[in-house]
Design brief:
Bound molecules: flavin-adenine dinucleotide
Structural class: alpha+beta
CATH class: Mainly Beta
CATH topology: Butyryl-CoA Dehydrogenase, subunit A, domain 2
Number of helices: 3
Distance between the termini: 47 Å
Strand order of the largest sheet: 2-3-10-5-4
Helix content: 25-40%
Radius of gyration: 21 Å
Largest sheet: 5 strands, mixed, barrel
Strand content: 25-35%
CATH architecture: Beta Barrel
Number of domains: 1
Length: 207
């Protein structure tokens, strides 16, 4: 799950990030030193993302202050990698209160210094460890952004592009999950077929 989502985040960054963003984040994501996530779901919002409550307030330096809570975030927090680059859907101040008002932000767990080294924590906190049925080993959690008003994010594309950019990641994740489903179904069929053949041999009344 972790490398899969990281690949999705890298693809969005490659296609829609600024040159500075790409230079800062991509090399370490490609080597696997840093991983990525996609953050859509909130305690109040699943399928119907238009109701999303996470907000983004533009700052003078072009960054945004992010505030909100996301849940069910796959690989949301862990120590497998030194930094985690979250791709977060949020509503920029003044944007429409529907799905067209969403934007996509790059929000690192740790800020990155100009020389590429890790800086201070970016006010992204794991507030609850969660479990997803069927994938118990997946590091899944609830994340609070900006409890202290210090969570910085950088926009990908323009304000209002959020859903179309997020679908670049989601489509890839869907294809990955679909492949896993087909693979599991295939293995289940092979095991069932083998078992059915052996069972006939073992059953005295069918001989
Ligand atoms: C394995 C797994 C990994 C996940 N990883 C992530 C992740 O990394 N990041 C992330 O942000 N989220 C993640 N999620 C959460 C996922 O995005 C949500 O579960 C999904 O968006 C559905 O939301 P929900 O669970 O709240 O269901 P709901 O939105 O409550 O939907 C429940 C049911 O109601 C139906 N429904 C909902 N609204 C309507 C409507 N208006 N009309 C008709 N039917 C409707 C749905 O089709 C569904 O059948 C993950 C979920 C799973 C299972």
């Amino acid at each position: 799950m972790t490398p899969g989502l990281s690949a999705g985040a890298m693809n969005v960054l490659t296609e829609f990030g600024t040159e500075e963003m790409k230079k800062t984040y991509l090399p370490k994501m490609i080597t696997g030193e840093w991983s990525g996530t996609m953050c859509l779901t909130e305690p109040n919002v699943g399928t119907f993302l238009g109701d999303l409550r996470t907000t983004a307030k533009k700052q003078d330096d072009g960054s945004y202050l992010i505030t909100g809570t996301k849940m069910f975030i796959t690989s949301g927090d862990h120590d497998l990698t030194k930094n985690i680059i979250h791709m977060v859907l949020a509503r920029a101040e003044g944007s429409p209160k529907d799905i067209k008002g969403l934007s996509l932000f790059l929000v690192p767990k740790f800020r990155v210094n100009p020389d590429g080294s890790l800086g201070e924590p970016n006010d992204v906190v794991c507030s609850k460890i969660e479990e997803k049925m069927g994938i118990h080993a997946s590091a899944t959690c609830m994340l609070n952004y900006g409890d202290k008003g210090q969570c910085k994010g950088w926009i990908l594309g323009n304000e209002g592009d959020g859903i179309s950019l997020m679908f670049h990641m989601m489509n890839e994740a869907r294809i990955g999950v679909g492949m896993q489903g087909v693979a599991l179904g295939g293995v289940a069929y092979q095991l069932a077929k083998q078992y059915a053949k052996e069972r006939i041999k073992a059953c005295t009344c069918c001989r």
